[in-house]
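It would be a great kindness if you could assist me with a short task in structural biology. The matter concerns a single protein, recorded as an amino acid sequence and a row of backbone structure tokens. Could you please explain, in whatever detail you think fit, how the structure tokens follow from the sequence? Thank you for your consideration; the sequence and its tokens are set out here:
___
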Amino acid sequence: MTDLTPTPHIGAKIGDIAETVIMAGDPLRIKFMAERYLSDCSQFNNVRGMYGYTGTYKGKRVSMMGHGMGIPSIAIYTYELFHFYGVKTIIRVGSAGSYHADLKLGDLVIAMGACTDSNYASNYGLPGTFAPIADFGLLRQAVEECEHNGYRYRVGNVLSSDVFYSEESHLDKWVKMGVLAVEMEAAALYMNAARSGNRALAICTISDNLITGEETTSKERETTFCRMVEVALALA
């Protein structure tokens, strides 16, 4: 790598990426979001098909980029963005599975904290258990934006799980601890932000309900989860 393209996973040059990056797991969702919301949009990354774009939204310079599935993937991309590209704020907009019957498809979950079954925190060599939490300023702004627009939302803990297909379900145990929903990335995002002294927030749309069995299609997830994106853009 060179000083101009400092990492093996992101093909951007220094200066190509804004200080605020909105990220989603699916790179096709990123492409859809960038084309829909950003003006003067240019692509800064397509390495490994992980699209990244920079443009403007209501006069503010904003970047959007995919982060892939799971903690190892988002951990690599967010580490590189924070440490090599001068990014100060990352907002994840993703899908989550509801752990409560009254948390409906399309509802937003603003992740105040992220429990996890991952061992990622061992990377930091801490003498105890770290609690990954969101930046309070971003969280408060997101709540205000949801209130202003009348969006259905909940604030609380999510579970960032390493396991999508599990031999044994522990859903009831997490529910008893008040966890709202399950996703796969927020905990690593929050840890990387904390360690680098930067800001992060995860806003998720309920894509399926693990209690009622309701679910959305992959196409619906790619193209219709707009409310969380508009909330994220309002924070940029």
Observations:
- Residues 85 and 188 are 18 Å apart (CA to CA).
- DSSP finds seven helices and nine strands in the chain.
- The radius of gyration is 17 Å.
- The first helix runs from residue 27 to 37.
